[in-house]
Amino acid sequence: MPRTREHTDFGFRRVPLEHKQALVDDVFHSVARRYDLMNDLMSGGLHRAWKDALVTAVNPPPARRAQQPKASAQPFALLDLAGGTGDIAFRMLEGAASGTRATVVDINADMLAVGRARAAARGLDDAITFVEGNAEALPFPDRSYDAVTIAFGIRNVPRIAAALGEAYRVLRIGGRFHCLEFSTVDVPGLAALYDFYSFNVIPALGRAVTEDADAYRYLVESIRRFPRPDAFAEMMRAAGFARVSFQRMSGGIVALHSGWRL
Ligand SMILES: C[S@@+](CC[C@H](N)C(=O)[O-])C[C@H]1O[C@@H](n2cnc3c(N)ncnc32)[C@H](O)[C@@H]1O
């Protein structure tokens, strides 16, 4: 008997599970150079506020003006999954205590190359390590990070449960995982407007800026296929996270999920 192949969503298409990663990789190879510009254009700069909310939730130890950190204190270590061009890591390190370290993992070498160049331009290359790797199988020891984040990345990962399990594994006991992701707009007037904008304006903008409308069609379709926040919270609990919570922002356009490793 032939084995039934497992399928998953790639935007609105059903594809064999093992094909999804290559399709996702093509999207980000294609848009890497203009990725950050497109984020500003598509969201009217709002993605900056959403990312700042994520950094506030992580709450990395702030730089001290008068005192130096105690010599014995372990520096705070952040792991940013699917970290792409480094945006979350840069925001996290801004104003953080000296010694704070960020590791950015992404499966896409082109996104990481943009991130490394941005880090060098900001003089942050000593504080950030860029690692090419898969969120589903992290090359790090158990319990090695104080916080793990993923922003607008999890819906691109084919095996979400595996990535959540890995985030849990590498967190220290008492560490917290935060996931910022597009979500479900439930405000009636806004939902219609948001759909119109998503399906008409965003692919056209993508074509004009990156010459790749399909990449941005995938973006809007993949958002529609991502689980609702209560269902995603349940997936986090299944991975072992405790005190799971989420906060909707901007009428539900995005949600910020958090859970502890206790
Ligand atoms: C929408 S971008 C988000 C980038 C960044 N976190 C941000 O907020 O600007 C999604 C990223 O997920 C990465 N990605 C997709 N699948 C991945 C996987 N299995 N493991 C690690 N990164 C992955 C892509 O290469 C891409 O850089």
Which molecules are bound in this entry? S-adenosylmethionine
Q: What gross morphology would you assign?
A: globular
Q: Give Rg in angstroms.
A: 18 Å
* Low-pLDDT windows of residues: none
Q: Could you spell the SSE succession in H and E letters?
A: EEHHHEHEHEEHEHHHEE
Mean pLDDT: 94
Report the structural category: alpha/beta
Percent of residues in helices: 40-55%
State the major sheet: 7 strands, mixed
**N→C terminal distance:** 44 Å
Strand percentage lies at 15-25%
The count of DSSP E runs of length 2 or more, i.e. the number of strands, is: 9
Q: Which sequence of strands runs across the widest sheet?
A: 5-4-3-6-7-9-8
- How many helices? 9
Description:
With 262 residues, the chain is of the alpha/beta class. Helices cover 44% and strands 22% of the residues. It is built from nine helices and nine strands. The model has no long low-confidence stretch (mean pLDDT 94).
In short:
The chain is α/β, with parallel strands linked by helices.
Question: Keywords, please?
Answer:
binds S-adenosylmethionine; two-stranded antiparallel ribbon; alpha/beta; 44% helix; 7-stranded mixed β-sheet; single chain; 262 residues; 9 strands
Question: Which SSEs are present, and which pair or pack?
Answer:
Blueprint: E1 7-10, E2 13-16, H1 17-31, H2 35-43, H3 46-58, E3 77-81, H4 87-93, E4 101-106, H5 109-121, E5 128-132, E6 145-151, H6 160-170, E7 171-182, H7 188-210, H8 213-225, H9 229-238, E8 242-249, E9 254-260
Parallel strand pairs: 3-4, 3-6, 4-5, 6-7
Antiparallel strand pairs: 1-2, 7-9, 8-9
The structure holds S-adenosylmethionine.
S-adenosylmethionine is lined by residues 21, 24, 28, 82-84, 87-88, 105-108, 111, 134-136, 151-153, 156-157.
